[in-house]
Structures are given as C-alpha cells and as structure tokens.
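Checklist before submission:
- one chain only
- standard amino acids only
- sequence pasted in full

Submission:
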Amino acid sequence: MTDIIDGNAVAAEVRDGLSGAIDTLDDAGVTPTLATVLMSDDPASQTYVSMKQQDCEEVGIEALDVEIDPDAPAEELFDTVADLNADPDVNGILVQMPVPDHIEDRDVIRAIDPAKDVDGFHPENVGRLVAGDPVYKPCTPHGVLKLLDAADVETEGADVTVVGRSNIVGKPLANLLIQKADYGNATVTVCHSRTDDLAEKTRRADVVIAAVGVPELVDGSMIADGTVVIDVGVNRVERDGESTLVGDVDFESAKAKASAITPVPGGVGPMTRAMLLYNTVKAASRQADVPVDLE
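Returned file contents:
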C-alpha cells in the first residue's frame, strides 16, 4: 500500500514545534517579525503573501505588510529593503517574487541583509550552504528534507534523482542531500527538461524529487516499484473547462508503483510556508543572541 505523505500534518508539527522557541524569545522581550514586501498586482502573489502573513499570526510571529506600487521606480523597492535591513525590530525580509520587469530579481536578493534573508537566496547564504555550513536552508528544500524524515525515508547511501536545476529548489536540494548531515549522504543525480533519456535516470533512483515546472512530466512508467516520489511542482492547467492544480508528477500512475508519494496540493507546499516560519524564528534568535531549541 502506498503511503501518501501528508504535508499539511507535517507542517502542523513544525509550526507546533516553534511554540517553545517563540515563548523563549517572548520571555526575553523579542517578538519574531517577518516583513513581506509585495510589488505586484498579480492575484496569485497577493494570495501567497496573505497566506504567509496568516501563518505568522497563527504561531505568534509579527507580520509586517509592505506594499509598493508595481509601477513605482526600482529605487522605491531598494529604499524599502534598506529601511527594513536597518530596522532592529525586523528579523526576516521576504520580497515576493516575481518583481516587475524593470527590476532584476537577483539585484533584489542581493540587497537583502544576509542575516535577514529567511528565504536563503542571498549569495552569502548560498555559499554557506554549498560549503556545508548553512545558516538558513531555503524553505522548499528544507521542507522536502522534513517530509523525508517524517516518512522514515533513509537517504544515507540512497540514489536520489532530482528533476529540476533551479536556484530555488533543484540546486540547493541536491547540495543538502549530498552533505554529511542527518538527511544527507545520498548519491544525487540532477536532471532537467533537456536531459536525454530522463526515464532511465528516474527509474534507477530510490527517491525521485520532481521540481522542474512541467505538468505531470514524471509518470508511473518512469519510476521503479517501491520508489519514494516527492512532487514539488505546482501547475495550473485547464481540464474539462475548469482550472485545476497538478504537480510535476502524474499522481495516479506514480502512486500505483511508489512506496510513498506527496500529493499536490497538500504535499510540499505547506512545508515551504512552515519552513519560512522556522527560518524567521531562527533569525530572531540569532539577531537577539537568545538561544532557542529548534530541531
């Protein structure tokens, strides 16, 4: 019987696990604070930011909402980030991507103080991750590791195929999986949309992680019996005249062969949001020099 890995349940455990750390910070007069910066009128981006703010409020993290007109000059965004960097009451900064076309994403990422970069995308934080000394693990890769742990999936010595090479998921996840850590020591193959004979690479894996952004690219014919499948993809497609969400994995055919699999929605997505809260609490602890217990 295939184990359906419940990301909502694991995310709830992560959030519950933050309560002790937040209480410790509160006793020291510190309220973890996350600033979300939205420079977009895209409904999806607005929804994502609203959900993150709601998550913060539910666990006792202060949510600071900053909205900037998408037509404003780039300087307004960079001045806002600079002000947040300088604000001692702000522990984490998240600029919702994408930003308008007249601003480079990479310039925004580099403008954020690495100590407040709770997404883990600043070059300094990326470099520390690659060196095996991460401060903030990027939220989605960290969430994937938590899901594997919760499902008792052993990565030590396992063959893991990551389908996707993005800076947000594929690359940092591959780096975390090969490191000498509690959830590492794997042998990792990184594939992408131009990989020749992708199915040959995925069929030999003990764990397949799909994060390529192609709807239902990986199906049951591409995995071996007993494979663990983690689906990071979230794609909106039209079916029978209705819009629906699907992952990068064809769930039904893959479920028939997998030993464990994440659904979409309800798999990796909730974990990404939970690990953002985790990183914000960690940032508050580091900046206030108040030790807390974070697993």
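Reviewer check: The chain has a mean pLDDT of 97.
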